[in-house]
Amino acid sequence: MKKILWMTFFVVLLTSACSSPAAGPQITVEGVWGRNSPKMASAGAFYMQIKNSGSEADHLISASSEACGNVELHESYMLEDGAMGMRPVEGGMIEISAGGTVELKVGGLHVMCLDKVADFEIGDKYPLTLVFETTGEKIVEVSIQEEP
Ligand SMILES: [Cu+2]
What we know:
CATH class: Mainly Beta
Structural class: mainly beta
Distance between the termini: 44 Å
Bound molecules: copper (II) ion
Radius of gyration: 19 Å
CATH architecture: Sandwich
Number of strands: 10
């Protein structure tokens, strides 16, 4: 009986914590990965889920990594002949709306690693610095793997 009371207490606590998001953006980044590729491939793409559990939108505005000479924010799009192309995102930034999640995935948005300086072998890990307009810098780890 006592146990049930305690459980109820915690459920109430959790519920109240969830119903009032913290002021400002609350950014978390998960599942950061890139596909394995040899060094002679000059570019690679990084994918991830970016979640904002806060009450205000934020924007991913740039990124950098020691594994890349240059990093750009890209989107994939369909070319006239049906093939896929990619280009820098419109406006140069990716919006993460309040309470929203943006998925960077194969065939969609991605962080483009240009002028790669290393082989990307399965199991390698590289730090990636993401810069958000409001949140500022967030350093995450890219895990090199086959498509999960
Ligand atoms: Cu790209």
